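From: lab user (bench 3)
To: helpdesk
Subject: output format question, protein + D-xylulose

Hello, I'm new to running complex predictions and I'm not sure whether the block I got back is the full result or only part of it. Here's what I submitted:
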Amino acid sequence: MKAGKIIFFLLCLNLVSNLAIAAGPPTCPADVASDCASDSGEWKGEFFPDIPKIKYEGPSSKNHLSFKWYNAEEEILGRKMKDWMRFSVAFWHTFRGTGGDPFGAPTKMWPWEDGTNSLAMAKRRMRANFEFLNKLGVDKWCFHDRDIAPDGKTIEESNANLDEVVALAKELQGTKIHPLWGTAQLFHHPRYMHGGATSPELGVYAYSAAQVKKAMEVTHYLGGENYVFWGGREGYQTLLNTDMERELNHMARFMEAAVAYKKKIGFNGTLLIEPKPQEPTKHQYDWDAATAANFLRKYGLIDEFKLNIECNHATLAGHSCHHELETARINGILGNIDANTGDPQIGWDTDQFMMDVGEATLVMLSVIKNGGLAPGGFNFDAKLRRESTDVEDIFIAHVAGMDTLARGLRNAAKLIEDGSLAELVRKRYQSFDSEIGAQIEAGKGDFDMLEKKAMQWGEPKVSSAKQELAEMIFQAAI
Ligand code: XUL
Ligand code: CO
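Helpdesk reply: Thanks, we reran it on our side. This is the complete output you should expect:
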């Protein structure tokens, strides 16, 4: 486990590893020179010439570049599938993931990449992103400021780089596409080694605020519907050198300032906290949904934030994704899902595409009970395996991920329409559907009255939990 955490820490860095490559003049890779105008670095023609627009062909189709279960316009439980799902592509995995890991070099040499972290390359990548979205039929995307535009030497330079790329993104978005959410990357640069909002250095706290301020502005400008805070380094490595109370207070003050700024600029998007227990820190302050909810309540922020639940983070916290979604839902703060999954044999944040229909069905049961996720949705915070290196694999992974969740939606709807699971649960609690039960639930069940009842009723009859029956009903639907 110790080794796993170290590996994961390095994998996290790898997410953005190519950002560390020094910016240089745009170049074109020798083997694709014919597609790349030598002086401007512009890409000519399509980025994915061999991939057609992905269509729904139904479950019997053998075409791997088609949807078998996701039929955007089809209605399930009175709502179009696309409106239940609200899918989004994560720019960092899809366009900045290199396949490099702590033991090996990048494996993905996408034809449009020229090996630089230049502005010209950032723009070319952005064009590839929009061709991808259009061909996949997804109208939302998510980004970190630093994965779409190169970091500069000063805040001003970084902001200018970001503005240039964002202007292009705005143009490419047209009227239909917009970000599901944007965020600031406060974990890659060495200045953030002790955290951003929880850094013991005042200068870093201020720098983080400046970065979040700008990231919020561009998210708003692009029509983003949400803004995410994932505090990868907001935590500690040892309590011996850490004033946890002071750091949490700082984090709360930071969040208050973010709320105030959001209101100041008229950004109506939802602010989302994304829990994760550890990696890269040993202990991340937003450990899980319950911890994040407690933080929000303690500091009076519960009405200003919702949660972005990531399934792989849930399993790292020792929960199921379903547990985290239900915890967020019953607290009224389920805002968005970072749709991915882990590997039970690995134990770190592998960020795989969710392919388990059972898991997807449980996820969708929560989403339906929540009445959907809007203005949130499903962001594919998932990356190709290091060994998947064909351009078409990017499409295949997203198609399979979308189909798995769509199948989950169909199954969850079946379970709800069938009603036997709900009936099993109803029966389990039916003793409370009584006068005394109602009294207890209304907060009027005092101990004197309950003692009298217990004596009057005598030894209670305790019924079976019917777990295997519940599992049988669930299995039959998937
Ligand atoms: C890291 C993670 C992030 C957030 C955004 O585990 O999930 O990519 O989603 O910063
Ligand atoms: Co995430």
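A quick orientation on your result: Residues 230, 274, 310, 338, 381 surround cobalt (II) ion (ligand 2) (CB under 6 Å). Let us know if anything else is unclear.
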